[in-house]
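In the current project phase, work has continued on tokenised descriptions of protein folds. One protein thus recorded appears below exactly as we store it.

——
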Amino acid sequence: MSLISVQGVRKVYRVDRERIVALGGVSLAIEEGEICCILGTSGSGKSTLLNIMAGLEKPSRGKIVIAGSDVTGFSEKQWALFRQKNIGFVFQSYNLLPTLTALENVAMPLVFRGTGKGKRMQEATKMLKAVGLGTRMSHKPTQMSGGQQQRVGIARAFVSHPKIIFADEPTGNLDSKTSREVMGIMVGLARRYHETLIVVTHDREIARFGDRLIEIHDGLVRYDSRLAPQPAGGAANEEERKAQA
């Protein structure tokens, strides 16, 4: 059984009297441990597809099954509990809490899981070292570069070891060199922990980091293919060695 099954999903928005079809009937299956990049231009429907798979939007028609659960009709409360246990997010704009340190930001998902403070700090420390920020744990977001903030965001997404990581344009605010480093870190962690990573991007170079490339055009899947594995995690491992030196 696939980890995620998207079955005939349509999404139609109504703007005044106009009907805008964001997704025109998408069906696909994503396997456990797969690194999947969804590529498309602005307005193609790629972010809408991610939001529906993550329960942030409801489909107009169709069905979503995740880890054997039909989540299509979940209430907001059911989705909140499901995401807490199964899903992590990496955002384009980082979404870090400005008053908290890197360590406190990374530990936050574990608070909602009821993890004790000592264990939270231990796990957050381990994950920050894994993304090469072992010497930046006490820094607040305003004291870090965009690339460093995104590494904190990645550590936060992975710290509770969810089944699925959704990343919506995670390199959209970064330069090309930092973008490659950030993707290498995410892919490396996903492989290390055998977690499913789904990345939405408009950048074809970023999309090449996946095991699988899905292209969305005008709300439909136009291309779906396996890719040759790319080296990943090197930047993270190098930074981790420096931090621990």
Notes: The chain is about 35% helix and 25% strand. The CA atoms of residues 134 and 243 lie 5 Å apart. The chain has one domain: 32-58+75-244.
